[in-house]
Amino acid sequence: MHKMCVMGVRTSWRTVADGEFFCPDCGGDRNYLRRTGRRRLTLLGLPLLSRGPAGPVLECSACRGHFGPDALDHPTTLRFSAMLRDAVHTVTLALLAAGGTSSRAVRDTAVDTVRVAGFADCSEDELLTLLAALAADTGRLTGTYDAVTGGHCGPQGLDPCGTALAIELHEALEPLAPHLAPAGRESLLLQGARIALADGSYTPAEREVLSTVGSALMLRPAEINQLLAAARTPS
């Protein structure tokens, strides 16, 4: 014998927007409906008094689960891949700006790193052209980049990373860091270390760039020093 529900609360939902997000329950990219609602007290199934607003919520089109708007803080798989690719590209350019490009080993390692990250068609000329363009943008780099010698002229040592370049590193890495596992943050720093070490030991400017990278990735100074020291030891 079924009992009749005499009183209850029913929510009427209204769709106000849609889009794509990473569904926590599905574990992948899905479409969503952004919905708001209004709760009403019901008697024998009939709506009576308003009990106030509900939501907003994101409703997954696949599992129909409801999630708070903060679910949009997690990037979609496609967006995450793009963020990671751009982060590697930014770190590579920062290290080339700090250490110069006179070493063939450094240039080759930089190109290989960017290609593996997702820019499969990246060439050495493309990186050098972009680096020269960045150097021409006043304030981006500390010294003046010499495209002929692959080095810098002008004052060095006052601000090896460059204020604007440090800002770019933080802008590229800080939004990504919360979504990376600790091993992922360490791997990104070590990719930069391999570029810097391709022609020998770290220069002070390269070391400062790598410290900035580690800081933006939410690594502690002790962790950064340990990782950079380990990268110098042949496996």
Quick take:
With 235 residues, the chain is α+β, with helices and mostly antiparallel strands.
Molecular structure report:
The termini are far apart. The protein folds into two domains: 10-72, no CATH class; 77-148 and 156-232, no CATH class. Strand 1 and strand 2 form a beta hairpin. It is elongated and about 80 Å long. By secondary structure, the protein is an alpha+beta fold. The longest helix has 23 residues, at 77-99. The protein has helices spanning 77-99, 104-117, 124-136, 163-173, 182-197, 204-216, 221-231, and strands spanning 7-23, 28-43, 46-60, 66-67, 144-146, 151-153. Helix 1 packs parallel to helix 5 and helix 4 (163-173) packs parallel to helix 6. It contains seven helices and six strands, in the order E-E-E-E-H-H-H-E-E-H-H-H-H.
Helix and strand arrangement:
Layout: E1 7-23, E2 28-43, E3 46-60, E4 66-67, H1 77-99, H2 104-117, H3 124-136, E5 144-146, E6 151-153, H4 163-173, H5 182-197, H6 204-216, H7 221-231
Antiparallel strand pairs: 1-2, 2-3, 3-4, 5-6
Helix pairs in contact: 1-2, 1-4, 1-5, 1-6, 2-5, 4-6, 5-6, 5-7, 6-7
